[in-house]
Amino acid sequence: MRIDPCGLRLTVTAIAALATGLHLRAEYRGPRWQVYLFKPLIVATLFLLAAFSSPAHGARYQLAIAIGLACSLLGDIFLMLPTDQFLPGLGSFLLAHLAYLVAFTSGVPVATAPVLLLPLLAAAVPLLYLLWPTLGRLRLPVLVYSITIVLMVWRAWGRQLALPTPGSSLAAAGATLFMVSDAILALNRFHRPFPSARALIMINYAIAQGLIAVSVGMA
């Protein structure tokens, strides 16, 4: 049976958006069991989209994105547990970004557009400088993670520049929003918590993962 790609994208987008809304409602109002249900559902649904889409950018790209989504799902589970599992969660998302890095280097020279690193470093270095005194034993893991996500976004931007297609544009936008989501999370956890942080983190994160997943089937 042939799967309609447009229908699949619309269905998955609707499910992921609904799960995001229900997750946020549970985060702010409860009950807690709904957080455990709806948060993993977001990325699990997007994983199925990436896995069952017809690959528009080759098998390597599709496999790497699927692995990145699977690692992200594991990270989501770690970070929502009642005990503090930040380090395993960080490690899971580090693997996700490495997988995305593999995807975004497929079909283009690795060092395309080095100048695009400059605005990313201009954003990442001051943020790290601000957070550094409060990171404690997490300094090295956070530093490694920050370098990896900067490289991941850089390669997504470079791929979009070298292959200006709708799919590569979606991936570049998704990678950027992922970095925005992580920056808000870092500020909320290590600098100054604020009430809207959970909503801003999850909305940017869900859109980011959705755009990256959709890019698999978009030429």
State Rg.
17 Å
Summed up, the helix count is: 8
Structural class, judged by helices and strands?
Answer: mainly alpha
Question: How much strand?
Answer: under 5%
What composes the largest sheet?
A: none
Principal-axis shape: globular
N-to-C CA distance: 22 Å
What order do the helices and strands follow? HHHHHHHH
Q: Which stretches are poorly predicted, pLDDT < 50 over at least 5 residues?
A: none
Topology of helices and strands:
Blueprint lengths: L4 H25 L2 H21 L6 H22 L5 H19 L12 H19 L3 H24 L3 H25 L6 H19 L4
Task: Write a structural description.
The chain is mostly helical and 219 residues long. The protein is 79% helix and 0% strand. It has eight helices and no strands. The protein has helices spanning 5-29, 32-52, 59-80, 86-104, 117-135, 139-162, 166-190, 197-215. Helix 6 (139-162) runs antiparallel to helix 7 and helix 7 (166-190) runs antiparallel to helix 8 (197-215). The mean pLDDT is 93.
Concise account of the structure shown:
The protein is an all-alpha fold and 219 residues long. The protein has eight helices and no strands.
Can you give keywords for this protein?
single chain; 219 residues; mainly alpha; 8 helices; 0% strand
